[in-house]
Write a structure and sequence with these properties.
Elements: E1 2-8, H1 15-20, H2 22-25, E2 31-36, H3 43-50, E3 55-58, H4 64-75, E4 80-84, E5 88-90, H5 94-102, E6 107-115, E7 125-126, H6 131-140, H7 142-146, E8 165-167, E9 169-170, E10 174-177, H8 179-185, H9 197-207, E11 211-222, H10 226-229, H11 231-249, H12 251-271, H13 274-289, E12 317-320, H14 333-342, E13 347-350, H15 366-379, E14 381-385, E15 388-391, H16 402-423, E16 429-432, H17 438-441, E17 448-453, H18 465-478, E18 481-484, H19 487-492, H20 494-497, E19 501-503, H21 521-524, E20 530-534, H22 544-553, E21 558-562, H23 570-573, E22 578-582, H24 589-593, E23 598-601, H25 607-610, H26 615-622, E24 627-630, E25 643-645, H27 648-661, H28 667-672, H29 679-691
Parallel strand pairs: 1-2, 1-4, 2-3, 6-11, 12-13, 12-16, 13-15, 16-17, 17-18, 18-19, 20-21, 20-23, 21-22, 23-24, 24-25
Antiparallel strand pairs: 4-10, 5-11, 6-10, 7-9, 8-11, 14-15
């Protein structure tokens, strides 16, 4: 399938003709998406008037070109994407020719022949930027230098525009990108705001084996002209050339590139007068000042624009999760926090690198665990949501061997660094949830290190307590902030963390956990009343014996269990009133839980649980369910809403009371009690702790 993505910003004058050119160009049944960067004019109305079937994707702000393209790509899942400027006019058959070019083996990006309205060919093909080429352009001028490949970036040979070929990169006014290329590269780098983002993307594509193919049969008229007449845009484009070189080659070579570009702009500023000289003087000022990333260009040049200039983008976030996005329940705190952040920061979640290698005799379901991890690793890097990336590195989790432990750290670090480089995450905030990530993170450059202390992992029964405990202590000592969900654990470790300790708590997706009118048909077929549990059925956490007793002593009720299991479920399913549904996707959990009459938390009494703060408690309450739980310290703050049982006999009695009487408070009050505990509010606090004064 094909999607056509057009990013607009005060484009009322040009968008109509662009859209009207699509059908004759060969758009066929392609989806057409206009991503509008908060235009203050009639852009959207003009787009709908020209093409009623257009899909408008509002960004709600001036997100820049790359931000707009990324939003369009995210909305066009599974499609090849044709990116167009709104001032492009496609000639008949242009899209058809580009699609044929994209089908050539090895091609990832196809670009057309661009001309002015009078037919003059635009020199749109480029060679890889180098310091020598920038120096050649400074001394000889772009067109003269372009005649010698080693001295010029611009391809100026007339023959190059008359026949198909390949280029290092090309002007990004019109380019068709294959889905395979999009999946491999991920999003465009948004920090450039305008200019150099397509350069970076196409160079990265070439390095991954995707050719940029030029097809002269595909013709497009490009009105253009803004960069040549606007001093601020010229200055931004010039400064971004240096930024691009810095990000790709480091500061030393960027300094040389900066000198060459400064020379070029200085010569033009001295030899040209009027507006021509003004834009070069603006570029000189930008190159001398050169903040790490550009401020958003002044919107005052666009009529009606109201966005104020913005400073350089804040840091991205890399989270080493304790779970795997592809097969664990996505309600876990690290996933929820990062999803809440993704709308405001670029986020990379690194799936769990484990705390031990599964082995017979020490680990349950060894083969299944290894196979599911390998399936996850095969996905490597994906983008489930805009701004939210998930990677599955290949680990060697032999933490008991010092040598293999160092090898594993080097292996995982190399993979994470490569992905961070591809995503433009230079000095991210590192959020570590699993202590074995400390070996990986220790030498990596970062804005801040946050230890998300959700559990005491050294208490995990299959872990090497001494090794994992040492990693935990290193993190507790070295982290800039230690974030706790358990007040008990925070109090016990106060001597190690001091003022760096912060109680973050867990949140709840109250919109997601809204009671459904009817349960799913397979649950509706289970006789009521229903006593239910959803979540991981791990034997070291869930008291299977207590569940057996509950099933035996409440034969009139159905015990409904939802979740993946490492516990011996045959013990439970042998009871006629027990129904185990297995794994249910997170998206469907609220509908199933809506069919519970009572929700339970039948935990073991161990160190893990004593330091826990289960997220499902707030999810149960958001659904307005009566809750019965075994006792653990964090429940001290919920005793007015939860029936708490200290013994198996008391637990069974509490479930009977809940079935007969309902919850301690009405369902509406239970839900209202957690409405202020959103994940968004937790993410706000996380941002404050990570990016504020430390």
């Amino acid at each position: 399938m094909l999607a056509i993505v057009i990013v607009t910003y005060f484009s009322e004058r040009v968008i109509g003709d662009c859209l009207r050119s699509l059908q004759d160009a060969g758009a066929g049944d392609a989806r057409v998406l206009v991503v509008d960067n908060d235009s203050g004019d009639g852009t959207v109305a003009a787009a709908r008037a020209a093409l009623p079937a257009v899909e408008v994707v509002p960004t709600g702000r001036n997100a820049g070109f790359a931000g707009g393209v990324n939003a369009g790509i995210a909305a066009a899942s599974g499609c090849d994407v044709l990116v167009l400027n709104p001032d492009i006019r496609l000639a008949p058959g242009a899209i058809t020719a580009l699609r044929e070019a994209l089908a050539v083996p090895g091609t990832g990006i196809a670009v057309p022949r661009l001309t002015a309205e009078d037919g003059t060919v635009h020199f749109s093909l480029r060679r890889r930027p180098t310091v020598l080429r920038a120096l050649g352009e400074a001394l000889l001028g772009g067109h003269r230098a372009g005649r010698v490949p080693a001295l010029g970036e611009l391809v100026v040979a007339a023959g190059a525009y008359e026949r198909p070929g390949t280029a290092d990169w090309a002007t990004g006014a019109a380019w068709l990108v294959s889905r395979a290329c999009l999946d491999a590269l991920g999003p465009l780098e948004e920090r450039y705001f305008l200019y150099s983002e397509e350069t970076e993307y196409m160079l990265r594509a070439g390095e991954l084996g995707f050719a940029v193919r030029y097809e002269p049969r595909a013709h497009a008229v490009h009105l253009g002209g803004e960069q040549g007449t606007s001093s601020s845009l010229w200055a931004l484009a010039t400064a971004n050339r240096v930024r691009l070189h810095r990000e790709r080659h480091g500061r030393a070579r960027a300094l040389a590139m900066r000198g060459a570009v400064l020379l070029n702009e200085a010569i033009r500023a001295l030899t040209r007068s009027g507006r021509g000289g003004a834009k070069h003087r603006a570029a000189l000022r930008a190159l001398v000042r050169l903040p790490r990333w550009p401020e958003q260009p002044g919107a005052a040049e666009q009529p009606g624009a109201a966005d104020p200039p913005r400073t350089a983008d804040p840091p991205g976030y890399v989270c080493f999760a304790a779970q795997d996005w592809w097969y664990h329940n996505r309600a876990h705190s690290d996933f929820q926090l990062m999803r809440a952040l993704a709308g405001r920061r670029k986020v990379l979640v690194v799936n769990s690198i484990g705390m031990r290698m599964p082995a017979p005799g020490t680990t349950t379901h060894v083969t299944r665990r290894v196979l599911r991890k390998l399936r996850s690793v095969a996905k490597f890097l994906r983008q489930p949501f805009p701004g939210f990336h998930v990677m599955s590195p290949l680990p060697l989790p032999f933490y008991g061997s010092p040598v293999l432990r160092r090898v594993n750290a080097l292996l995982v670090r190399a993979q994470v660094r490569a992905v961070c480089l591809a995503l433009g995450l230079r000095r991210p905030v590192m959020v570590v949830t699993i202590p074995t990530a400390w070996d990986v993170v220790r030498p990596m450059p970062r804005h801040a290190l946050l230890y998300n202390r959700s559990d005491r992992h050294s208490a995990f029964p299959e872990a090497d307590a001494a090794v994992i405990g040492a990693m935990e202590n290193d993190l507790l000592a070295r982290a800039d902030r230690v974030l706790y969900a358990s007040r008990t654990l925070m109090a016990e470790e106060r001597e190690l963390t001091g003022e760096r300790a912060c109680f973050l708590d867990h949140g709840v997706d109250v919109d997601h956990f809204t009671r459904a009118a009817e349960p799913p048909p397979d649950l509706a077929a289970v006789p009521g009343p229903r006593v239910g549990f959803f979540g991981a059925l791990d034997e070291f956490v869930v008291d299977v014996g207590l569940l057996e007793r509950l099933a035996a002593e409440l034969p009139q009720a159905s015990l409904v269990l939802i979740g993946d299991a490492t516990a011996p479920m045959e013990r439970l399913t042998a009871h006629p009133n027990v129904r185990w549904f297995g794994f249910v996707p997170y998206e469907r959990i609220p509908a199933y839980a809506s069919g519970f009459d009572v929700a339970i938390m039948p935990w073991q009494d161990n160190a893990w649980i004593r330091h826990a703060n289960p997220i499902k408690l707030k999810e149960y309450l958001a659904l307005g369910l009566p809750v019965v739980s075994t006792d653990f310290p964090e429940l001290a703050h919920y005793r007015d809403r939860v029936r708490v049982a200290a013994t198996p006999e008391a637990f069974v009695a509490a479930v009977k009371a809940a079935l007969a009487e309902g919850g301690p408070r009405p369902a509406a009050e239970l839900r209202a009690s957690v409405l202020g505990m959103s994940w968004s509010s937790r993410a706000d606090r996380l941002l404050e702790l990570a990016e504020g004064e430390r």
